[in-house]
Amino acid sequence: MPRTSTKAAAPVRRVASDYRLEDQVGFLLRRAYQRASSNLVERIGSYDLTAPQYATLARLYERGALSQNLLGRLVAMEPANIRDVVLRLKKRRLLATRRDPTDKRLILIDLTTAGVALVEQLIPIEIECTATTLAPLKADQRRLLYELLGRLAEG
Amino acid sequence: MPRTSTKAAAPVRRVASDYRLEDQVGFLLRRAYQRASSNLVERIGSYDLTAPQYATLARLYERGALSQNLLGRLVAMEPANIRDVVLRLKKRRLLATRRDPTDKRLILIDLTTAGVALVEQLIPIEIECTATTLAPLKADQRRLLYELLGRLAEG
DNA sequence: TCGATATTGTTATGATCATAACGATACCGA
DNA sequence: TCGGTATCGTTATGATCATAACAATATCGA
User: Fold this and answer.
1) A73 lies in which domain range?
2) Cβ-nearest to A26 among B10, B33, B137
């Protein structure tokens, strides 16, 4: 006997196998990401950075100079999107761009000194933020979640 | 001895507790949601619907008429966002709006006949799509994932 | 070598997203 | 009842997102 409707103006409709939006992974994933993202913005928002922007900086910090396209793939952004993010971060002098001398198609991107300094300041904050997001879970549950999410993302 | 850099133009930087973007839940959640969302659009894209639009229709189907604000909360969208989604769906005659007679602030929203018909057509597709997204996981892992995601979303 | 094919970055379009500020309406306690 | 407070919907701004079409450059096989 699932969910009771309190005072619906219209009768609740039912489909064969009583469907619930909550049972769809996509919906759950979207809400969980909203939570994680808002946790992050809450902490690094004062730096005027979004989650994708932080991911971009962090990736450059990890890997050093990358082409714009590869950078985009490594942070899971389409070419058109990573372009905009790079432009904004470049305008703030957090990263710099230059042409690849051997392959004229490529734009090489790397952190500036200011960018490196900022990332090193933010990394501890992000680790703390991840802990906050994962707070409802026990240690073994967290490990499990990582494994499951990893499989989903890779397909 | 983690990750080896192949031919980085710049040296790989390291922070104290060798940080990896992949260890941050937010990043994993974002990628998993991307996958789920693209799975859905792949199947219902021919109906010219996005994931949030589908969620909105499905919620109305489940619950019957709702105020715009409550509808937004039930699909995890801010007032400004649910407004735009409602406008687009209304333009396509998939839902209809009317003023609440008792509370002049509210806009009551409900599916049209066409909207109901469309949702009933889409629900089996979405269930199939969820199965596709969850394909990499075994049955007990799926149950586990749902529980873990539920806890994260609720905080 | 040269021509088909693939890759990179750009542009354009449309749909989410979150936030802040605002007027209108409801509610609620003194 | 009446005035402060809360809720609802709107508007504006800026940042993601995905997709398609395009030009420039690389690559690879005949």
Assistant:
1) 25-37+48-125
2) B33
